[in-house]
Design goal:
The protein is an alpha/beta fold. The chain has one domain (about 10-280, about 305-320): Alkaline Phosphatase, subunit A (3-Layer(aba) Sandwich). The protein contains 14 helices and eight strands. It has helices at about 40-45, 80-90, 90-95, 105-115, 115-125, 135-145, 150-160, 165-170, 180-185, 200-210, 220-225, 230-250, 290-295, 300-310, and strands at about 10-20, 55-60, 60-65, 130, 215-220, 255-260, 280-285, 325. The protein has an eight-stranded mixed sheet, with helices on both faces. A hairpin with a 3-residue loop joins strand 2 (about 55-60) and strand 3. The protein is globular and about 45 Å long.
Length: about 325
Amino acid sequence: MQPILSRPPNRYVHLFFMDGVGLGTADATINPFVTAEMPCLTGLLGEGWYTWQHGRYSTERASLVATDARLGVDGRPQSATGQAAILTGRNIPRQIGEHYGPKPNPAIIAAIEEGTLFSQVVAAGGRASLLTPYPDDYFEAIESGRRLYSAVPLAVTSAGLPLMTADDLRNGRAVSPDFTGAGWLNHLGYEDIPQLTLAESGQQVAQLAATYHFSFFEHWPSDRAGHRGSLEAAARHLAQVDAALGGLLDAWDDERGLLIITSDHGNIEEKDHRNHTLNPVPTILVGHNHDVLAGQVHDLTDIAKIVRLVLGFGQLAEKNGGAGSR
């Protein structure tokens, strides 16, 4: 039987999604994490946290798991299948026989429409939302068929939830994928969008997340920084992500909320090419029982499992004794 989720949420989960971020090596000539100024995540997880060889470990406030994005399927992981695996808790690449993306094909669309974290929370009477908004042109392109939903907004709309709009961004109900809102002004021509600092954007994500049972923030520019631009530009981008996460962590309620920071596939951590990588991705957990929950995470399909556990959709397994400490 589905649990009935309380209003307002007593326990809540926020998934801070960074597209195209893997765990690489400590080679400063290809990995921008090595030179990026990231005091927030370094303070949270320790030096060198961005390399894959650490595996799984916990600090006082957080746990990090090197998470398998390949899911037993040959080829380079892709956005549509990776995001669908995160949101459904099912091995979508294996189910359809390949990694696929960036947009869902009919098989992935069908898998998402079978049910995701968004639809499960809605079915239980809870509150769920994608906190990143879309401009007016996006909705016009979707309606005309000139553009297709990617996996995350498809999961939202399939659950019967609305996507956030420019009006939501204006009124503080959403946070721009670029954190500050500068892109809406400089590239989209919206002159009335509030401009935030990086820290303020993270604080706003934390405040909004506390009003939902499950929320999702999609930061896609990290994947673009992997595919395009220089090593130095990628390092600057990572510093911006870290500053936004600093604001988020400063405002986060560890007792009530579980914060999950993760990705769908590697990319930005290897700037000697412009393809996705075969590397594991980081899953960072912050909040009550983070170390216990980290023991449940091995691959992308386990993200949905721990969301369901925290929200009461399943029983918490015993702590995995294999997790190290730091």
